[in-house]
Structures are given as C-alpha cells and as structure tokens.
Design brief:
alpha/beta, globular, about 200 residues, 2 domains, 6-stranded mixed sheet, Rossmann fold
C-alpha cells in the first residue's frame, strides 16, 4: 500500500477479513487510543472489591478554652472491615465537639505500621483479627508497645480470645466492636473533647 509516495505495510495478522480489508493507519491509531483509554478506565474506575490500605481524617471541633488540651489528638484506628471503621470514625468525630483530632484509619498491617512510624499517635484502637499476610493486631500491638511503651491501645476484636491476646501484649481495655464502649471510655479518659 502506498501513502504519500511511501510504501507502507499493513500489520493486520489475526484480524477478521472485514477489518483487515478496510483498516487504514488512522483507524489503527483510533483503535489503539480507544484500547489505551479502556485500560485507563479499568485502572481508575472505583471498585467495591478494592479496599484502600489507609485514610486520614482531620476533624475540627470548637476551640478549646485557654489552658485546656485534649489527651488524644492523633488516633490510629486499625480495622480491616471498612463498614466497622466508618462507624468508629463517626463516633470519634461526634465525640470530639472541642479540639482538633486527626484520625488515621488503617485497613491493613502495612498502613498501620506506616502511620505509627510517621505520626505521633496517642491512642490506638486495634482489631486483632486482620486478614493480612504481614501479620495481625497482636503483632502490631507487640511492636507498638516495644517502640513506644506509653502509647494507649484499646483492643477491638469481636473475639474474646483475640481481645485477651491483645491485652496480654499491652492493650489496656477491650471494646468488642462496640462504639458505645468507646464513647464511655473517652468520656472517662479524655473528657475535655466533650466538655470543652
């Protein structure tokens, strides 16, 4: 085939006869661009099966009175179930009427370890039963306590045995996936966030 005086070959092997017969260079280019756009759509399209490893939420309550501070301004929530994580995030946001709180939601072992290593986390709400090849909540609890012995960790597993395991490694309280227990614990241990 000649185009503008140049000899051009058609690479049409494997295409149906009807497509090979009428495909010009501009048609091939158009098909190539559409294929690339399809790949990009597949990469960036939201999917219900892909769970991000972590998210950060900044919550601003009312200004605190002079001289008052909240005890837990940076909270790490380690939870591999996004629906449960959302409930706990909402409870924390609703509780801290006063002060500014940063909530680090880690849905996997690596995100939890990264947040802990890079932030000054003051409170950790730990799920024991992470479905992660890197480790579980007990491994994280042991690692976090060894690194910062004064960090506060609350065990938050639905299994009593898992909660006992976490308290054995240094968690100070068990929540058992109950948001009302978290609210009650915060009222006792960080009342400034609710009172101002």
């Amino acid at each position: 085939m000649k185009y503008m005086g140049l000899e051009m070959s058609r690479d049409t092997e494997g295409l149906p006869e009807a497509v090979r017969k009428y495909q010009t260079p501009s048609e091939r280019t158009a098909r190539f661009i559409l294929t690339i756009l399809g790949w990009l759509r597949d990469i960036f399209a939201p999917s219900t099966t892909i769970i991000p490893h972590g998210q950060v939420f900044q919550h601003h309550g009312h200004y605190l009175a002079a001289g008052k501070v909240i005890r837990y301004p940076q909270i790490l929530l380690v939870e591999d179930n996004p629906a449960i994580a959302r409930k706990f995030i909402e409870v924390i946001k609703n509780y801290y009427v006063f002060g500014t709180v940063k909530i680090f939601a880690a849905y996997a072992f690596d995100a939890a370890a990264t947040f802990f290593a890079n932030e000054d986390i003051s409170l950790i709400i730990m799920d024991a039963d992470l479905e992660d090849d890197s480790g579980d909540g007990a491994d994280l609890t042991r690692k976090f306590i060894a690194t910062r012995p004064k960090v506060t960790i609350l065990a938050n597993s639905s299994s009593r045995i898992s909660n006992l395991k976490l308290t054995g490694y240094g968690a100070i309280e068990t929540l058992g996936k109950r948001t009302d227990k978290l609210t009650s614990w915060l009222l006792t241990n960080d009342p400034t966030g609710a009172e101002g």
